[in-house]
Structure formats: C-alpha cells, structure tokens
Amino acid sequence: MIGTLGGFDGHGNMVVLYTVERMVFDRYYCDLPIGLVIVRGEEVVVCGELYPTAPELPSNMILVTRDEMNEARKAERNSSFLRTTMRRLMNFLECVSDD
Asked: For 19, which of 13, 14, 34, 36 could close a Cys bridge (C-beta 3.0–4.6 Å)?
C-alpha cells in the first residue's frame, strides 16, 4: 500500500490517506485506489518515505488495468498447470518405456 501518513499513535497504529494498493506481477503493475486506511500497528512490517525525485518503479514495468492484471495472473496459472502436467506425463512415459 502506498499513501500519505495522516497520523499514528504509541502502538504504531497508523492512519494512511490517499492510499492505493499496488499489485505487481512479473513486469506488470496496477494501482487500485482505496482511500483512507487505518492500519493496526502489529500488522506493519515496514514503513518508509518515498522520495519524489527517485523513480517509483523500474523503467521496464508496464502499467495495466486490474482486468489485464487478472488475465496475466490467470495465464501464468494455466501455463504452470500445463508445465506440471507435461512433466508428470513425461515421467510416467519414461517409467513405462523402462519396463
């Protein structure tokens, strides 16, 4: 999540304004606007400052819509499933040919 820190307390709880959730997959990314978020301090892993002059993302990253991101993820899952199925089939055929 990326946003503007609106406030915090002694327990590390934070109010984050103008928040977007950045989804990254391979070389694609999309920013989903959320708005105001209240985060419990125990859920915070890292919190830091983004410098306005530094590039936010590597130059090879491509901004896509949420639907395009979901399609890319779905295609990767299908591709992974096919690779796994083919490996299993090849292993089976090797076992059968050895007999």
From this structure: 34
Listed residue (25, 29, 34, 27) closest to 4, CA to CA: 34
Distance CA 15, CA 52 (A): 21
Count CB atoms within 10 A of the CB of residue 81.
10
pLDDT, one tens digit per residue, over 82-96 is 888 888 888 878 787
pLDDT digit string (tens) for 4-40?
A: 999 999 988 999 999 998 888 888 888 899 999 999 9
To 10 degrees, the CA torsion angle through 92, 93, 95, 99? 140
Query: Cα separations (Å) of 4 from 8, 19, 60, 75?
Result: 12, 7, 26, 34
In the chain, how many H helices and how many E strands?
1, 4
- pTM (predicted TM-score): 0.58
Residue 69's pLDDT is 87
Task: Determine the residue type at 93.
Answer: L
